[in-house]
Amino acid sequence: MSLKKSAAWLVLAFLSCPLGRLNAQEQAPPKGLDFPLIQYKLKNGLHVILSEDESLPLVSVVVAYGVGPIREQPGKSGLAYLMENLMFQGSENISPMQHINYVQRIGGEFNANTAFDKSFFYQTVPSNQLALVLWLESDRMGSLSVTGVNVERAKETLMAEQRQRRSAEPYLESFFLFDEILFPDFVYGHPLPGTEEDLRNITEEDVRSFYRTYYVPNNAVLCITGSLNVLRTKELIARYFETIPPGNDVPDPPAPKLVEGSPLRDSQLRESLAPSPAFHFGYRINQLQTGEYYSLRILDILMFRGKGSRLYKRLVKKERVALHLSGGIEERRGLRAFKVFTISNNPVMSELSRKAIVSEMGKLKTTLVSEAELAKAKDLFKMDYLGRLSTSLLKALFLSEAFLSGNRLEDLAAEYAKYLKVTPVTIVSLANRLFTPENAFTLSLITK
Amino acid sequence: MIIRRRTKGIRTCLLVGLCVLTFTLRARPQERFRKSPPIPDPLQELRLPLIESVTLSNGLTLAVARKASSPLLSLQLVIQAGESDSRPDLPGTASLTANMIGRGTDLLSAGEIEERIEAFGGEFAASVSLDVTVFTFNVLEENLDKALEILSTIVLKASFPDGQMDTVKRTVYYELFEREKDPEFVARRQLFRMLFKGHPYQTSIFNEDVIKKVGRVDILAFYDRFYRPNNALLVIAGNMNLSTASRKISHFFNTWTARRIDHPIHPSPAPNDKEQVAFIDLPQAKDATIFLGNVIFPATSSDYFPFIVLNQLLGGTMGSRLFMNLRESKGYASYAFSGADFFKSCGVFWVRAKVTPEVIRDSVQEILKEIGPAAVERASSFEIEQAKSFLIGNFPLKNEPLTSFSLEVARIKTFNLGEDHWNKYYENIILVNLERVLATAQRFLQLRPAVVIVGNKDLIADDLREFDTVDIYDISGNLRSTINKGVEK
User: Fold this and answer.
1) Which residues on chain B are in Cβ contact (under 8 Å) with A147?
2) Residue A333 covered by a domain
3) A256 falls within a domain
4) d(C-alpha B185, C-alpha B43), whole Å
5) pLDDT, position A24
6) CA angle A221-A227-A232, nearest 5°?
7) What domains lie within chain B, and their CATH numbers?
8) How many angstroms away from the CA of B430 is the closest CA of chain A?
9) pTM here?
10) Of A39, A87, A136, B331, which residue has the fewest beta carbons closer than 10 angstroms?
11) Among partner residues B34, B119, B401, which is closest to A391 by beta-carbon distance?
């Protein structure tokens, strides 16, 4: 979604409406989606989302920025992940790591994470400490401390962490390689933590420039959920955030360079240090037609969610050809991929796993999913979806993510209903359109 | 010492603060209010849902904690029997029994049960502690009846099929085997072995080898004795009221028959009072893990709230004394925390730390110094207020997820902690003061804790010789040798 427009110097009219109650004739939203919601924009473009829930005296505050590896340039990969670390290294009025100390001292919890095109910073604290968190978050949004020393220290920390992860997770490298195969241009396909070489190349000026460009109010959303007094909260938000100047307009990230086919359709990684043979299997999904997204999500659950999923039942329980199975639909700003990863005892089992997956994908295209199986998948979907709204923090993260993904929060209840309208026919037609040999890729790991 | 360290910390902050002023990316003068943290608003009242309960005609206790806004329900079926109720010659029986629930009834196979649960998206899990066995079910509100139907079927009509016994034993065996790669698990288990020696709780500490001794007949006997409605509690958290819940539970569980259960409450084990240092060799461990602790009171004690404030002061979080000393000040440890586990008969206060092998002895000494009453006596009221502030702030966070909330309700009911433990949590903490914390420390931190060290012997053998006496155990808890005054025998 473009946040360019959000830099407009207009305070949008407050949208204060329970989800799904825009139209009196519409059905009441289901429980779990019937929470109140207020949205508005500050003069500097910062989008604000408030959702009140009095059940416990706590509040969750998420500040999410529309930035991630998608904004990195070749040779500078890992910059967004590095920024995640630097955001805790102090700002004008808060010394390094003090952010953490302030939150922990009052019994609060904090964290941050970087996704492909979004970065989230969040904390949950007692509701009477809301001002403290807004003070902390506004200070690092307005005046992050970027010094040569803390940039170098953060780079060293990340490089050490990466070395440790790569030695502890022998299959990790193959995941990065398979992403490069499925998402073939640098912007969409490079690894989130970056490479050690690129991290070394990142300069203090790169960090300053990246921060000034993307960690600005007009590229961010502030979401507060929990036990809040709306008037008081608005006052505090205005006090701490309104005078932070907007950045320049944030351009849309480059569109992916779609590549039809690839010389890397069936690749092998021979020099792997992996203890057991494994392989990646995936379909590149370039574009979805209207409504197909909902079927894809339900299909994801059918194939992967839990021990009752089709792939787990076939590969692990019934045929016992895979020791490990994981996968799902991955989204990278409009580009998607269906990914499966298996580890087997030996190359024969690995090959049998591949055949079983191909066979299961074939069934999706030729046989209608039974109503009972579809109902089960929808129940699991409901559990997952409503579970993502079950605590104040999860709700704040969900709303921030949905907003930055370009979804209208007022439409969540209607969107939810669309998942529940998926039919066996929409799934079979989707499978036939997407899961073609031209879109399929594999990467086999051959052990030494 | 603490005061000196604090002063140094403040000076460091000031220096860093000056650097920050020089380099921050702000292009405009800042407002005055940004220079210091804001004053908090008054603490908001904590209004927890009432825990309503009723005992059904067959003796099953039902407790309901209503969270009206939740579309999900969390169910906990608590059987008041855990690993300490396994026969002393058959440890692991409670775990195997719990794991066999859901593995078959007279009419349903394990696969069919799994499919039925999956069919409505239910999430089912079993866990066993020293005193209790807990079965957890998370479901959509609309699927409660289906969940209760399958839960009552698998518990009341469990058939313990022979064919599943081997599978379950293998699973439990490998789970334990896998966990033994974790130095903390190994160290904690050894500490409990030492503290519970000669007490019925000792039965709950076992290694994977004993699993094979337990047969179907032993599981049936355990099930028959303890899986009774008058020995069980069912907790429902979510959008449910007591009368509806009671009607539904009666419907699904009314065929469950009560039986008199002779179930003595074990006396509290005596605290450790001698110097004991144990070592277990774990060749793959890169660092040394220290786990030390001692027996304290059960959660029903009036010392509970002063003690959790004390624990917070000592080692509850990264800002507590142990972490600040062993990691931030001395640089010995990658972490150092304290905590307490509470059971029906007693509690165990413990400290866990991961340290570099060369400083094991220094680390143990620092820990002992930090948790000794003398160190606690130097606590200021400010430190106590900080610890209380953390506990008050963290309580609603900890209990916000529905399953955690439901488990807390189950804990309160199981351990008979009383309504005030729940409803007056804030008051209970606020009323703790320095004097009460000191009195608690005097009572429970006087005796020397037992110490367990786990690490790679090849890397730390020389460092172990710095202790007067170290008993070397194998991973199963058998004493193999002793290092006395530097000489291993």
Assistant:
1) 19, 23
2) yes
3) no
4) 38
5) 40
6) 70
7) 51-253 (3.30.830.10), 277-488 (3.30.830.10)
8) 14
9) 0.89
10) B331
11) B401
